[in-house]
Design a protein that fits this description.
Layout (H helix, E strand, L loop, with lengths): L10 H13 L1 H34 L1 H5 L1 H28 L2 H20 L4 H28 L6 H25 L7 H6 L2 H12 L5 H6 L3 H11 L2 H25 L3 H10 L1 H19 L2 H6 L1 H7 L5 H29 L1 H29 L5 H7 L6 H6 L10 H6 L11 H25 L1
Helix pairs in contact: 1-2, 2-6, 2-7, 2-9, 4-5, 4-6, 5-6, 5-9, 6-7, 7-17, 11-12, 16-17, 17-18, 17-22, 18-22
Length: 447
C-alpha cells in the first residue's frame, strides 16, 4: 500500500493534479512514462480485432477454422494471466522499474514475432509473448505510478492509467484503419505495437526506481533522492517519515500472518475485513469479464461485418466509434465516480451491459432465423429472384464450394437479394439497433 491513505480521486484532486504537474513536470513525466503500459494493454485489446480480418485473407486455415481464430485472440489473455502473476513477483524482487522494462522487452519481441509470422502458429506464439508483456505491465505500471506520485494527487494520476487503456484501444482502431490499404496490412497493425513499448523502455531508463521499493530494500539515500524530485524540500522529511511508518507496518503485518504463501492466505481469510474485501473485488472482476464485453472488443469489426457491412474499411470505421465511446465512458467514470459513488455506478453499468448484450444476441438470432439461406437448392427454387444470384452463377465452378458468409456479403446478397423484400427492410432496421446497442454496451462498461 502506498503512503498517504486510500486513493480517492475527485474533481478537486484533478484540479490539484494539473496545478502540481504544471509546477513540477517531472511528476507527470513519471506517470505518463509508466502509463504507457496501460496504452500497450489497450492497444493489444483493440488491434487484433482489425488484424484478424486480414489474417483470414492470407491464411485459409484461419478463415476456415473459427477455433484457430479464437486461439489467436485468446492466447494473449492466457499470457496476461501468467504475466500478471510473474509481474507481481518480479516487481517485489527486482523492483518496479526493472519489471516494467522487462515487460517492454517481452512485448516488443512479441510484436516483431507476430509481424514476421510465416504461419498462424507463429502468430499464436507472438500473441502469447505480447500477453505476457501486457500482464506484467498491467500489474506493475499502476503500482509504480502510485508509489512515485504525491499522496494528494495519487488517485488522479493512477486514474490516467485506465484512461490510457481505453485510449490505446481507440488508437488501435485508428491504426488499423490507416493500414487497410498498405501492403502487409495486419503485419503492420501488429508490428506497430512494438513502437510504444520501445518508447516506454527508453523513457523508463532515465527514470528512478520507486522510492517505496528503494526504502524497503534499505536504500534510504536513493529513496530520498527520488522524493526530492517529486516533493518540495519541506515535504521530503515528512514523506520519509510516512514511508518509514508504512514499511514498518507492512513488515509487522507480514510477520503476523506468516511467511509462506499458504500461511498468508490462510490467515488472511480468517480476517473478516480482508475476506469481505476479497470476495467483493473478485466478484466484481469475474462478473465484468463473464458478461462478455471482451467479445465485443475483440470481435467488433467481425460483428459489424456479420451485421451486413462486408467492407473491412467500413467495419473498422464503425468499430472506431465503439472504441471512441469506450474511451468516453472512462472519462465519464472519472468525472462522476466520486460524486455518485462506486457502488451505484457499478450497478447501473452492469445492468446496462447485461441488458444490451442480451439485446445484441436477440438481434442476431432474429436476423438469422428470418434471413433466407444461400445455397444451390434455394437458388433453383427462387429462380430469377434467387437468394444470391452471384452464387447461382458460380455453382458450376469449383469456386462455389469455397463460398462463405463473407463471400455472400461481398456479393451484396448475404441475407436477401430482393431489395423490396420485407425481410431485408426489417433486417436493416435490426442492423441499426444492433450497432447502437454495441455502442451503448461500451459506454456502460466503462462507467
Amino acid at each position: 500500500m502506498a503512503e498517504g491513505g486510500p486513493v480517492k480521486p475527485d474533481k478537486t484532486e484533478f484540479t490539484e493534479c494539473w496545478r502540481t504537474s504544471w509546477k513540477t513536470p517531472y511528476i507527470m513525466r513519471l506517470a505518463l512514462s509508466a502509463g504507457i503500459g496501460g496504452l500497450l494493454f489497450g492497444y493489444d485489446t483493440g488491434v487484433i480485432s482489425g488484424a484478424l480480418l486480414y489474417m483470414r485473407e492470407d491464411f485459409e486455415s484461419i478463415d476456415k477454422n473459427t477455433w484457430l481464430q479464437e486461439t489467436i485472440v485468446s492466447m494473449a489473455v492466457a499470457g496476461a494471466i501468467v504475466g500478471a502473476a510473474l509481474g507481481g513477483f518480479l516487481s517485489d524482487s527486482l523492483g518496479r522499474k526493472k519489471s516494467i522494462l522487462g515487460a517492454d522487452i517481452v512485448f516488443f519481441v512479441g510484436a516483431i514475432v507476430m509481424a514476421a509470422a510465416p504461419n498462424p502458429w507463429v502468430i499464436v506464439i507472438g500473441r502469447l509473448l505480447v500477453g505476457l508483456g501486457v500482464g506484467m505491465a498491467s500489474m506493475t505500471a499502476p503500482l509504480y505510478i502510485s508509489e512515485a506520485s504525491p499522496a494528494r494527487i495519487r488517485g488522479a494520476l493512477v486514474s490516467t492509467n485506465g484512461l490510457l487503456i481505453t485510449g490505446g484501444q481507440f488508437m488501435a482502431y485508428v491504426i488499423n484503419l490507416a493500414f487497410t490499404k498498405a501492403p502487409g496490412t495486419w503485419r503492420w497493425m501488429l508490428g506497430v505495437a512494438g513502437l510504444p513499448a520501445l518508447i516506454q523502455f527508453v523513457l523508463m531508463m532515465s527514470l528512478p526506481e520507486s522510492p517505496r521499493w528503494l526504502y524497503s530494500r534499505d536504500k534510504v539515500d536513493e529513496a530520498k533522492s527520488t522524493l526530492e524530485k517529486i516533493y518540495s524540500p519541506e515535504e521530503v522529511e515528512e514523506e520519509m517519515a510516512l514511508l518509514k511508518a508504512s514499511i514498518e507496518s507492512e513488515k509487522a503485518d507480514e510477520a503476523a500472518i506468516g511467511e509462506t504463501m499458504l500461511t498468508k492466505l490462510k490467515n488472511a481469510f480468517k480476517n473478516p475485513v480482508v475476506r469481505r474485501g476479497l470476495y467483493a473485488g473478485v466478484t466484481v472482476q469475474v462478473a465484468q469479464q463473464f458478461v462478455g464485453i471482451n467479445t465485443v472488443m475483440y470481435y467488433s469489426p467481425t460483428i459489424v461485418q456479420f451485421a451486413g457491412f462486408a467492407s473491412k474499411s467500413v467495419a473498422l470505421s464503425l468499430s472506431l466509434i465503439t472504441a471512441g465511446l469506450n474511451a468516453f465512458g472512462s472519462i465519464v467514470s472519472m468525472l462522476f465516480v466520486d460524486r455518485y459513488g462506486r457502488k451505484r455506478l457499478m450497478i447501473i453499468s452492469m445492468a446496462g451491459i447485461i441488458f444490451f448484450l442480451i439485446f445484441l444476441s436477440v438481434v442476431f438470432i432474429e436476423a438469422s432465423s428470418h434471413a433466407p439461406k444461400v445455397g444451390s437448392i434455394e437458388s433453383v427454387l427462387f429462380g430469377a429472384n434467387s437468394t444470391c444470384s452471384a452464387y447461382a452463377g458460380a455453382t458450376s465452378s469449383a469456386a462455389a464450394g469455397k463460398w462463405s458468409c463473407m463471400t455472400c456479403l461481398k456479393a451484396k446478397c448475404g441475407f436477401c437479394s430482393n431489395k423490396a423484400s420485407e425481410v431485408i427492410r426489417n433486417f436493416r432496421s435490426r442492423i441499426i439497433f444492433n450497432i447502437c446497442a454495441t455502442r451503448l454496451i461500451l459506454v456502460f462498461h466503462q462507467v
